[in-house]
Design brief:
alpha+beta, Alpha-Beta Plaits, two-stranded antiparallel ribbon, 4 strands, 11% helix, 19% strand, elongated, binds iron/sulfur cluster
């Protein structure tokens, strides 16, 4: 296989065998976190559907956000039609 510097249009190989995604915790570098206001939540689960990290699970009729894997992208906040999610800043370590 040609080296990347020999063929700049070659797609580099994706290496497997690293650690599992579940080990890639984000809590060390996230700067904001979503906060659920359960009294406003309708249980529509759009936050579960749109979370790109799949770190929202369903607990009864409400979402449960697993902050160990949440990257604070705020997509869930933007998608929530009920205004039940807001962002809070993380404290500096
Ligand atoms: S998107 Fe908003 S209203 Fe819907 S389940 Fe999530 S927090 Fe609740
Ligand atoms: S902030 Fe982003 S990563 Fe975190 S729960 Fe919401 S959509 Fe998922």
């Amino acid at each position: 296989m040609p080296r990347l510097d020999e063929d700049p249009f070659l797609t580099p190989p994706i290496l497997t065998g690293g650690r599992p995604m579940s080990a890639n915790k984000t809590r060390d570098w996230r700067s904001v976190r979503p906060v659920l206001h359960a009294e406003k939540c309708t249980g529509c689960m759009l936050c579960w559907k749109f979370c790109p990290e799949a770190c929202v699970s369903v607990q009864g009729e409400r979402p449960l956000i697993h902050l160990d894997w949440c990257k604070g992208c705020a997509i869930c906040v933007a998608e929530c039609p009920a205004g039940a999610l807001t962002l809070a800043e993380e404290e500096a370590p």
